[in-house]
């Protein structure tokens, strides 16, 4: 995984390895922005296979995730075939053939016809319980029946990664069918490694200051705590403005990079900002590591 630029640990690497060896779906839960989706991308790159993504949302139904018929193309063919002496059954058989079928992510993953892809079912917790029940059936058999075409089965089941931000509790039935992985906010050293990998050219001190600041921010009661994705964007933004270390002006100018709520910005603008700047002043990377570790343990 690290060969693909993903800074991992033994727990994540072992779970991904078992998922690929046992061909079991893996359910990854954790805070937003901690790298859950990235696991599927890295797995697809490592296996040199296609990544197929199904983004879940409230109201998602089975047909939207599976397939639909290309109605404009069907209507065009019907008009062009009006002058042809074809029976009604022949016309119906043709327009409900595979040439007019639009495959959606689940059917694409089942009817891949080559190297098994990685199927990413992103934010499954946003979908309704009815869709989750339907998904259980698909994950059990990796087959789907289309009335006009019959049953389509996967020659080889795809690798499946499901992610959840825990906006609702998932069913025990779904969890039992999956390997489970919780990805928490990273430690100081892991976050610093991620910043160094994803932000080429960042100074050791600036990367450490960003990691320490994030450890401090996540101790606050914010409506939207920043994830690793925000750490990377923040480091990139500071680097783009020519900064080699954090200062008050740089922090205030870049609040919108890592804070996504007005009340959160107001909450950190006062005492937290002063306290952070005082705690960072004069500290090197090792001292910042001790500071961040102490705050995490508090």
Structural class: alpha/beta
Low-confidence stretches: none
Order of helices and strands: HEHEHEHHEHEHEEEHEHHHHHHH
Rg calculated over all Cα atoms? 24 Å
In the CATH scheme, the class of the largest domain would be: Alpha Beta
The total of beta strands comes to 9
Our measurement of the CA-to-CA distance between the termini, rounded to an integer number of angstroms, reads 32 Å
Q: How many structurally independent domains?
A: 2
Give the averaged pLDDT, no decimals. Answer: 88
Helix content: 40-55%
Structure description:
The chain has 298 residues and is an alpha/beta fold. The chain folds into two domains: 2-183, P-loop containing nucleotide triphosphate hydrolases (Rossmann fold, 3-Layer(aba) Sandwich); 188-297, no CATH class. The chain has helices at residues 10-22, 36-47, 62-66, 71-80, 88-95, 105-110, 129-141, 172-176, 188-198, 204-217, 228-240, 248-253, 255-258, 262-280, 285-297, and strands at residues 26-30, 51-55, 67-69, 101-103, 118-122, 143-146, 150-153, 159-164, 179-183. A five-stranded parallel sheet has the order 2-5-8-1-9. The chain is elongated and about 85 Å long.
Task: Write the SSE topology.
Blueprint: H1 10-22, E1 26-30, H2 36-47, E2 51-55, H3 62-66, E3 67-69, H4 71-80, H5 88-95, E4 101-103, H6 105-110, E5 118-122, H7 129-141, E6 143-146, E7 150-153, E8 159-164, H8 172-176, E9 179-183, H9 188-198, H10 204-217, H11 228-240, H12 248-253, H13 255-258, H14 262-280, H15 285-297
Parallel strand pairs: 1-8, 1-9, 2-5, 5-8
Antiparallel strand pairs: 3-4, 6-7
